[in-house]
């Protein structure tokens, strides 16, 4: 039964009911996951203009995204004209593929890497749906022994959702026609820029209305290092730290923060690049909150970053 309830959590998203819609101002909504999922799913944002609105980022919880799309259609009177992916992270892109189907008239903007490797994302989506389907079949076979009408009804809904997702056609995102472009939502302009950062391709979106920068994983207070170029990432956040056009940032995980707090990921990346030890520096620990959850995540992410950096050096014929 534990497996069955885990499956139901995937398809009948419990977390969606606890998603928080935060109204920053008349033109900006921040959508945060529940506190117990803040490191599992990504923050989202909706930027609103007089003419239309834009959605920034998605995550891999398809059921929650469907609920989110329904809420957008209820709460936002303007049509959705733009969708933005701030990274090339697989789960974020698969989620945005789903949202692009929910808002077919919107233009989806993503890093160039996504368009160049879109076939790989399509394969990843097929694999994900195949795993869902196999899990569902296993649950249905177990349910034949343990008859439960309510659970059977939920499984039937899950099956219908999978069939709907499998039947959809997915198109690649639109490439930016320059490294930096300005888009107008109607008395709300956005500057969209391709940047180097947390993943193999990244975007930042700057709102001229409130000087907020939406940079996703690249702006995470505790960097999550994947196959990242740490030196290029560090250069990006250092440049952002000294910009006069930004006053606050929204990361993929965690709360919005003021520009000066970029010093945290800067210090983290500098240590990951330059330190000779795999042990996290005490000076780095000291600038983060002392609670167990934060410190444990900080330690794990630092160890991951150092491991990735060592692997990179070894491939280049050097060892830290």
From TrEMBL:
<dbReference type="InterPro" id="IPR036866">
    <property type="entry name" value="RibonucZ/Hydroxyglut_hydro"/>
</dbReference>
<keyword id="KW-0732">Signal</keyword>
<protein>
    <submittedName>
        <fullName>Uncharacterized protein</fullName>
    </submittedName>
</protein>
<feature type="signal peptide">
    <location>
        <begin position="1"/>
        <end position="18"/>
    </location>
</feature>
